[in-house]
TrEMBL record:
Keyword Secreted: no
Role played: RNaseP catalyzes the removal of the 5'-leader sequence from pre-tRNA to produce the mature 5'-terminus. It can also cleave other RNA substrates such as 4.5S RNA. The protein component plays an auxiliary but essential role in vivo by binding to the 5'-leader sequence and broadening the substrate specificity of the ribozyme.
Catalytic activity field: Endonucleolytic cleavage of RNA, removing 5'-extranucleotides from tRNA precursor
Protein name listed in UniProt: Ribonuclease P protein component
Underlying gene: rnpA
A Pfam family the protein falls into: Ribonuclease_P
HAMAP family (alphabetical): RNase_P (MF_00227)
GO MF term set: 3'-tRNA processing endoribonuclease activity; ribonuclease P activity; tRNA binding
Subunit structure: Consists of a catalytic RNA component (M1 or rnpB) and a protein subunit.
Family from the record: Belongs to the RnpA family.
Keywords: Endonuclease, Hydrolase, Nuclease, RNA-binding, tRNA processing
Length: 128
């Protein structure tokens, strides 16, 4: 199993990011919020972006640290959703907390978000 986060998996296009925020569905497990949207992407199963509001963390150093923690937690745990989901998705992770956090807290929360995401996917499959 390769724990990588290649360029193809990064959500970068402004149009696509705006679409995720406008049309996406959200899951919240404080301090993380996941907004996701099913896409027709053939390059990668998931495209992921991370954001930390400037309103809560004025210093770029703090925002960058939290984003780095989020990316690392995603990279190490993405196999949990990669093998169990069908179709391709654009995912946007927002950090809602107002205080600096540890990697363990971020990873635990991310796992809970993934569980809710998979549950939501199962529900969608059942409705189809």
């Amino acid at each position: 199993m390769r724990f990588t986060f290649p360029k193809e998996e990064k959500l970068k296009r402004e149009k696509q990011i705006r679409e995720v925020f406008d049309k996406g569905t959200s899951i919240t497990v404080f301090p993380l919020k996941l907004i996701f949207l099913r896409t027709e992407n053939k390059i990668s199963k998931f495209q992921v972006g991370f954001t930390v509001p400037k309103k809560n963390f004025r210093e770029a150093v703090q925002r960058n640290r939290i984003k780095r923690l989020l990316r690392e937690a995603y990279r190490l745990n993405k196999h949990r959703i990669f093998n169990k989901s069908e179709g391709s998705y654009a995912l946007m992770f927002l950090y809602l907390g107002k205080e600096m956090t540890s990697f363990q807290d971020v990873e635990t929360t991310l796992r809970k978000v993934f569980e809710k995401f998979l549950t939501r996917m199962d529900d969608e499959k059942a409705d189809s």
